Amino acid sequence: MSNSHSDTIPLHASSQSDIDEIENLINSSVQSGPATVLPARPPSPPRASIPVSSSPFIQSHIPPPPLSSSSSNQKVPSVPSAPPPPPPVGNSSSIVATGFGPPPNTLTEPVWDTVKRDLSRIVSNLKLVVFPNPYREDPGKALRDWDLWGPFFFIVFLGLTLSWSASVKKSEVFAVAFALLAAGAVILTLNVLLLGGHIIFFQSLSLLGYCLFPLDIGALICMLKDNVIVKVIVVCVTLAWSSWAAYPFMSSAVNPRRKALALYPVFLMYVSVGFLIIAID
Amino acid sequence: MDLSQPIEENYANPKTCFFHVFFKASALAFYILSALFADSFVIIFVITVVLSALDFWVVKNVSGRILVGLRWWNEINDQGESTWKFECLDQESLALINPKDSWLFWWTLYLNAACWTILGIFSLVRFQADYVLVVGVCLSLGIANIIGFTKCRKDAKKKIQAFATQTIASRVSSTIQSAFSIV
User: Fold this and answer.
1) A37/B45 CB distance under 8 A
2) What tens digit of pLDDT does each residue of B71-81 get?
3) CA distance B134 to B48
4) pTM higher than 0.90 for the full model?
5) Which of B96, B142, B55, B37 is nearest to A64 (CA)?
6) B141, part of any domain
7) Quick check: is B2 in a domain?
8) Considering only CB atoms, which chain B residues are within 8 Å of A204?
9) Which residues of A fall within a CB distance of 8 Å from B133?
10) Fewer C-beta neighbours within 10 Å, C or N terminus of chain A?
11) Residue B67: domain span
């Protein structure tokens, strides 16, 4: 904070010490502040981390939001001089951010950062669940950053694809597919919980939604190619892929003797979706 | 925010307020006027639900931050338990929030949920299960936001009280110290 003294008008000695005292008070309260106000969510390990504080506040294209606590203590000493233009505030907040412990919170990040962060989270969750990767050994840790946007897109996409392939009763097909998948995911999660498993409700919903991705691909291929044999083969392959993707998460959540009880309904649901894909004409 | 200007009586963030209302209103309008737009239920469903989901995202991530300075999310900690995290701006920034903005924020949230509930009752009475599904999805998204932000606001008030008592205590102790040093 020593750079701020060059900006201020030289004052009488006693008032300068008062200002110092006020500064120290604010500094100490701000330092203890982040301990009571929760720091921002730290970037989680598996992600190619887009740092939360990537763009300083000056780049925000929305009207200047209320400044966070780290930059407000820069405002107080320089009030006797002119109100600070944005660049010094941006610089000081980035200096403060690296000097102090907690990172700037996500409350003042630009909108585009939030969008990018959410999109990258969807992609990373998809990669973790559906594709082979080293984190599958510890399933609870892998889907730590659950989100429901990916499952939402996949369910809607599957419903749309099925509805498009159907020649009659398109609306019913879509509604049935959507309701089946949504209610099915909820019921499967309840099933695991009632079997005494340790799983978090939203994490499991998120997982079951992401595991629909292979079936989405299967439905797309079946929509484009109308041959029955091709359809059966494609559905079998994608069904096996979906079940393989869901297996470690579900099985690790329950007692080993009840693994089959937890996994069988998941498999059943995916088989019924597979039949729906094959039977649509 | 420029301190030399008086606090505006109008909305401080008109663009954010507009988007906050826009998606909700368009979802409701599309659903109600759907008979004029499209015969197919699929299109009605998809567009209404997509607009509702976009509205959920906008409220949770953008307008909640900008209009009332609150944010909530869910995290899973290392023990594998889920915790709800709340974040709020500090005391000085909260005082700078335009009251008109926050009035608009809260009242459109409540009004949105009330409208969907009424539409849901209509669909139930007519035994249209498809439309009840649409209304159910949109209503659950709206209620999720209401619950999240209400919890966040209560949490913020608690934190501010704790912070204020702490600041008063430290200030009192420092003035006592300075009194003793002068003497």
Assistant:
1) no
2) 888 877 777 67
3) 8
4) no
5) B96
6) yes
7) no
8) none
9) 175, 178-179
10) C
11) 7-182
